[in-house]
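FAQ: What does the model actually see?

It sees only this:
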Amino acid sequence: MEKHRFSLSLTPLLATILAIGCGAALPEKDSSGLQNVIYGSRVHKMPKRDSGVTPDSAPSGAHLTYYGGRVNSATKAIVVLWGSGSYESHVTSSGTPSMLSFYNQVLSNGSYASWLDSEYNTVNNNFNGTNTNQHIGNGAGVSVVQITPSTSATTVDDSVIQSELAAQIQAGHLPAPQQDSGGNDTSYYAVFFPHGVTITQGGSNSCQAGGFCAYHGTIQNAGGHEVYYGVHPDMQAGSGCDTGCGSASTAFGNYTSVASHELTEMITDAEVGLAQTNGPPLAWYDSTNGEIGDICNAQQGTYTGCDGQSYTIQLEFSNAQNNCIPYAAPSCGTQTNDFSISAASSSLTISSGSSGTDSIHTAVVSGSAESISLSASGQPSGVTVSFSPASVSSGASSTMTVTAASTASAGTYNITVTGTAASGSHTTSVSLTVTSTTTTNDFSISASPASVSFAPGGSGTSTISTAVVSGSPKAVALSASGQPSGVTVSFNPTSVNVGSSSTATISSTSAAAAGSYTITVTGTDSSATHTTSIALTISGGGGGGGGITNGGFESGSLNGWTASGAATGVSTTAHSGSYSAMLGSTSPTNGDSSIAQTFTAPSNATGISLYYEVFCPDTITYDWATATLKDNTAGTTATLVAPTCTNGAGWVNATGSLTAGHSYTLTLTSHDDDYAADPTYTLYDDVTITTGGGGGGGGGITNGGFETGTFSGWTTSGAATSITTVAHSGSYAALLGSTSPTNGDSTIKQTFTAPSGVSHVSFWYAVRCPDTVTYDWFTASLKDNTSGTTTTLVGKTCPSSYTWTNKTGNVTAGHSYTITITSHDDDYAADPTYSLVDDVTLQ
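And it is asked to produce this:
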C-alpha cells in the first residue's frame, strides 16, 4: 500500500518519499491469509498545526503540473466506521447534514466536478505524450458501513489499516471497488476512527504535536484493484485534533474541511503514493508546494449543497485563477430522490436446520437520503428471511438473515431483495443454495502399535481401535489380509461396536519366512469399509539364527530375550516406537535384573548398536547399569557399557563391533542394592545390527553417521550442505540448509546395494521450520534402481516441533537403491528453514 498525508506544512512530497526510501513495494506473506495484496510505506506527512498564521492566498509561483498519472473520474465515497466507540454524531449519521451527505452533495451536484474537469482532466493534458485519457465527472456518497476490525487496540498502525481494509472488502463486509468504463477504479473508502484511538505511521502519531490530522493512501493491488482510502482520526473535544486541524466553530465543520482536502487531492492525484519521480503514476502536482489541497492548507470557505445545508470546506488551488478558490455553487433545480441497493455477496450457502447472513447495502443516487423498507421474495418453503434493521436510510446497510428449517428441501433458489422508498423501489438478487444435513454413518479404524516384530515361532499383538466419524455407531466386523505363509491373525472380539476396540494377535510358526510384511486390517459395517495397516517384521531368527529378535521391544514383551534376576519387563517410555525394556523397578529390588539374547551376526554385519537410559539416584558403589557382548565363536567378551550410575540424563547410544558369521550373546543388566530411598532401574531400546560396505552401489551405507566429519560416500547438491556437531548420536550429523535464508533445495544422496540379512533402511531427522509447508519443507525418498520404483519415506513436512524423528523403509537384499534427502527453504528472511540428518543405517 502507498499513502499520502494531508500536510499543514509545505514540505515537498517527492523529497519526503525519497527521504523514506524509494524501494519498490513487494508482495508480502500476509498473516491474515489474503492473496495478491501489495503494501507500501511511502507517505507525504501533514503535521498538526497548533500555532502560526493561517495563510490567506496561495504561495507565489504555485502551479500544478500533470505528470501522466490517474485521476478519479467518478468518485464513489464510502464512510467506513472503525468498530464501535464514541463518534461525533454527524460521522455515523446517514441523514442530513452528515459526512455522507457532505460527500454526496459535493460529488453529485455538478459544479465541483465540472470545475475540476475543466482544469485537471487527463484527456487534454499529457506528460511527454503520456496520459490516462480521463474526464472528471460526478460521483456520489454511497453509504455508511461500520466494520468489526480484527484488532481492538487503541493504537493502530497504517499497515494494520491497509490489511484490514483489504480483508473487509474481500469478505464482502465493505462494498467492492467500482470501476469506470475504462477500467479505472473509482471507490474511495474514507475511514473514520472513534475517540481514544491513535493512528501511527512512519514514526508519527495522529492528533499530537508534530503529528498529523489526516492522510489519504492507496493499496497498490488488492485482488486486482487499486483501493483509494482516507484516514480520519477523531476530532471531538479532547482528541488532540480538536485544535490545529481547522478553524471552524464546530467539530463537524473541521471534519468536512479536512475531508474536502483529502477528497480533492485523491481525485486529482489518485496514485501519488505510488510515485517515485516526477512522472507517472503522479498526476497533478506542484514539486515545490505539493498537491492541490497542500497549496491552500488551512484556508477555509463554505459550500451550500442542494440539501440546503452549509458545509465548511478547504479552498483548493486553481491553475486558471492562480489562487485558492471555493467550490462554485451548484445548479440544483428540482432533484428527484433515488437510491441503489446491492448485496455484499451474490450467493449464500446454508444447510437445512441452519442459517446464514449477508449484508444489504444502500446508497444515495440523487437527491437526499430517504427511508427504505426491505423485504424478500423467492425463498422456498421452510426458508425465512429477516432484516436487521428492517428499514434503513439511504446510504446505510442492513444484515439479512436467511434461516432454513430442517424440513427445507435441498436446492438452489433466487432470493429477490426489494428496497421500497417514497421515490420508488429497487431490487437485488442473492442466489441461495440449501444443502441436505442427512448424516451418513461412518467410522475410523487404527492400530497401536502400528508395527510388530518377532522371530519365527513368535507372536505379537496390536490394539485395533474404532471411532465414530459421523452418524451412529454400528457393528464392525474385523478381518485381516496380507499375512505370509505360516502367519495367522486373530481378533478378540471378532466384531465390535464403533467406539470399542479389539486385540489382534499375530502368530507365526517356526517355518515362517523372515522378512517385512504389511498386514491390512479391514473393518466393515453396513455403510462403510475402512482399513488400517500393521507393519510385520519376522527377523532372521533368535538364539543364533541370524540377527536380533525384538530389538525394539515393539511386541510389547520380552519375546526373543531370556530374562533373569529381580525385575524385568517393558515400559512405554521408549527411545523410539512404543516400548522399551525396563530392568529393575521404581521400587527397590535386590541385585541384578538382566535380559540376554544369543544371535549370529549376518553377512556384512559390522557392528551392534543400542540405546539406554539409567535412573540411578544412588552412587556407582551400590547401583549401576552395564552391558556386555560375548563372542561365542572367538571366546572373548567386550564391555559395551561399563558400570554407570547416572540419573535421568537422557538416552545414550552404545555400539560394538561384530564379525559376520560369529555367534554372540548380548547381556543387558541393571543392578539395585534394595535400599528403600534410592531404587535404580534402566531402560534399553533399539538394539540393532549395523552393516557396512562401499558406497555408490557397493554393498551398504557409507558414512551413515557422518562420523568422518565430512560427506564422504554422499553426493551433495543445492543451496547449502554442511556438517554439524548437533548429532542424534556420535559427534556429527548432516546439516541441509542453514540458519540463514537459502534459496531452494539442499540435498544429499547415496546409492548402495542392500546386503543379505537386511530388510530396512533407517535414519533420524530433525527439522527447524518456522514457516509453513507451502513455502518450506523436508522430504526423503528411496529409489529401487533394480525394480525402477520409488518410495516416499518422508512426504513434504514442516513440523512445528524441532525434535529428532526416526523413519524406516523396506529394502530387498541384493537390490540397488538411491536414498535422496532434501531440505527446502524459500529464501524469506524472517523464517530460514534447515534440517539435520543422522544415523542412516541398514537393519
